[in-house]
Amino acid sequence: MIRALLPVIALGAVAPAASPAQALAGRYYRQFSDKLVGGPYYRGEDIVEIVPVAADAAYFRIHLDYANGHVCGIYGVAQATGDRLVYRDPAHWGSNRSCRLTIRRDGKRLRIDDGEQSCSAYCGARGTLSEVSLPFASRRKIRYMKRLKASHEYRVSLAEWRTGKPKMDFWKAS
Question: Which domain of life is it from (predicted)?
């Protein structure tokens, strides 16, 4: 009787899904040809770094290149919410709405989205954090973790996460 129930019990025992903090960890990267208006071509780069800092949170840094030298650059600590990481910027940067950014896996893509361009303050005129995607297959292990953890961006992000104070409060102290 017990032997007959083992397969049924085993079917019900599903391992919990990994937190997105761990499941998305790594460095995502792509290069592409870009051009300055009326000028030469240059190599553009999109870089996303994700490092778990707790079971349900991860540090992230995003650098995206756009036409004519415009960029988007944002970093912070995002909380795991369901299958995604969600960053809510405590600073409003002179706006009446706060930046809310999601990072998630969607099949073969890493998707980044700030909804209705709530994070546009982090981008140049031609940049956006809305509906951005990178190949998930570009993910690699971060091999410069010691340098990353010593960076200003990482230290300020962890201080913001731990205290709830906006990053700008830590710029003077760093």
Answer: Bacteria
